Structures are given as structure tokens and as C-alpha cells.
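Below is how a single chain appears once it has passed through the pipeline. First comes the sequence as given, then the structure the pipeline wrote out for it. We keep one example in the README because the format questions we get most often are answered faster by looking than by reading.
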Amino acid sequence: MRLIRLVIAGILFIVISCDTAGDQNDRTHFIRYYGQDGDHEAADMVVNTDGSIVVLGTAEFPANSGNRRIYLAKIDDQNNTMWEKQLGDFTENAKDIESIFAGAYAGGYLILSNPVIDVDGNTGIKILRVDQDGIKIDSLLLSGASFLPSSFANSITPLQDGGFIVTGNTKNTNLILLDNAYVIPDQEDLLTLRYSESNSLVWQSTFGSGPEESGIKVFQENANTFNYAGYTNATHSGEPNAAGNFDLNFFYLTLNDAGVNSSAIYSGSPTEGEQMNAITRTPFGDYIAVGTTNQSSGSKRVFISRIVGNFSTVDKEESRTFDGEGISISPSGGSNILVVGNEITAGGSRDIWLTKLSRDLEDLKSFPVSFGASGDDDTANAVAELPNGDIVILGTMNLVNQNKIALIKLTATGNF
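Resulting structure:
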């Protein structure tokens, strides 16, 4: 694995000497920080067709105060900050942002947050719709009786009719499916909600057969079919001691236009605890997911799985050998895949880890690469490819005793 810590140290010095983002127009590849006073945590980003980037995160001011708002910024293709703003209430936890491509609000963005709703730390689900300038259009807070005591969403998917689907999990005991075969109680179930463009509920689907599980992403295949991916520790064929084995695995299934689910296909070892964090659709029509194995030794590994044939066959999977976490994944070029995550150091801190893979999950030349400041806990959140082939990573890094949103722009070969 290629290390570039010394290069990073030099770039960090340059960025620290600049007080704000947008001051380094002579630099094509860089690490740049976003946010004002207080701590900031990265969440997700959107790369637009013109090369501009919209960055999503959470701002907390003062640091450790619990006063958390949604942070949003747009950077043009020349690396200038066009605007930045804060949205929402003061208990936000920004999670996902997606471009709206159909309907009356096409060109804007859907933002997903999981705000804290009580003193016990339970969360609700909030959706904000903003225009192309980040100006709020409307919002929807899902925290009523159907979502209590706590629900959490991992992603939002814009739909062809201008509506959207949210997926994650719920701990609502009125919705959790009971199964007497479990020796431990069911703790949460999958939660999927479809809304129209006017924010009317089209259907709510709650299902699951394991004590711990969560939906990660929904993909719309056509007007009547949706591909659904996540993780679960439900028992299934191929696992030893089925009645008492609660090993996490990736799972894949389909939903029909009423939200009714098919039987699941599973991916992963029967003993290593694979927890999905992200999944992407490739230009070939198949899907590649990334996550983390939680091994019995206490160590973690990056786990990657490929499913083909409209969620019909898992045809390739692998676990990386170093200690680390798989966080995000994105298509690259015509047939390659970008994967970003965290490498766990001997001291227990994390560095950002990046690789570019062929469709057969083989590292391309010059990859993988990891980087970060020695001793700091630097973490990845999202990865994408720009129209010119450059790579952008969104992460959270420490800067002068505060966490900041970091945008890292690299060449196609992973260099500065």
C-alpha cells in the first residue's frame, strides 16, 4: 500500500496558512477545509455535470455543545466556493444528498438528516428539498407515532416521477416483526418509505427477520421494480447453528410498486459479520457494494461484493487483508470502480484509504493509497470522479484541534 504522509504534511501546511476555502486557485489538486467556527463532520457530496461539487455535512457550534445544523456548500469547477450555508434546526445529523432529476424541482437537491428528537438520543428522519442555490424549498419531518421511539435513514433515492424513497431502519416496537425463534429480542427492522413529489406517503414498508438490520440504498429499475440492498443478521440457509447464529451479512432483494419484498440473496461469510455501508450501480448494469467485516478477533476488514442480473446472483466477493473499514463506492470511467474507506493504524487512529478497481475487483496500477496526518483520526465519507477523470474524496479531518470537512482532490492515479 502506497503511503503519502509526507506529501500530505506539506499540503496541510499550505492549507492551514489560508484562513478560508477558495484561496488557492493556483492549485489543481489539494486538501481543502470547509466550515467556520466549531466542529464539522462530512456526510456526502454530489458532483454535477459541469464539474461543480455540492458538499453536505453537519456543523456543531460551539464544539461539543450538541447544537448541530446541516452544512451545505457549493464549489465550482475552478475550486472557488460559490456559497455556503446552514440549514435545519439545532439537532441535525446530515446523512445523504442526491440530485433531483425529474419533476417540478429538477436541478435541485434532496437532503436527508437524522435529527435527535429526545434526551435519550433517539432520532427521527428529515427530508429537505433545496434548489440549485441551496435555498430551502420545503421539508418533511418523519417523527410521529409510526416512527417512535427511534428511526434512522441511510439514504434517499429520487424517483422518475419526481417523488423519492427513504430507507433505513426503525426501532418502533409496534412495527417490529416478532419471531419466537430468536433467543434475543428483535431490536430493529427495515424501514422503507415512498413519497410523491407533493410529500404524500405512497407506501410504507416495514419488514425483516433478524434482530439487527438496516436498508442502505434503493435503486429504481423501472416504474414497478426497485432493487433494495442492506445488511441483516437474520438466519438463513448456509449458516451454521441457524437458531442461534446472528452473523451480519449483506443482502439484496427487490420491491414491487407496492413496496412488497421478494426473498433475499445473501453475501458474506457465515462468521465474519459483514455490514454494508454503500452500494453503486455500474455502467454495465450490475452493482458493487462495500462495507466492513467485524471479525471475532475484534479486527475489521474491507468487504466488497458484486451482484448481477437485476439482483439475481452474487458472482464475486472479497475481504481485504489489512485492518480497515469500507465506507463509500462510485463508478470510475467506463468500467472501473472507486472505493474509499479508513485504514486503522497500529495506534487505533484512522487514515483515509483509496483504491481504484477493475470490474473484477483487481487494484489498478498505483493503487491502493492511504494518507492522513500522523496520530489524527482522519476518516472518509464519500468518493466520486469528476468529468475530467480527477478523483474527489470527502472526509472529516482534524485541523488545529477542531474537526473540519475536508475535500481532497487527486489525479486519476491518486496523486496530488
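The longest strand covers residues 213-222.

See the next section for the split statistics.
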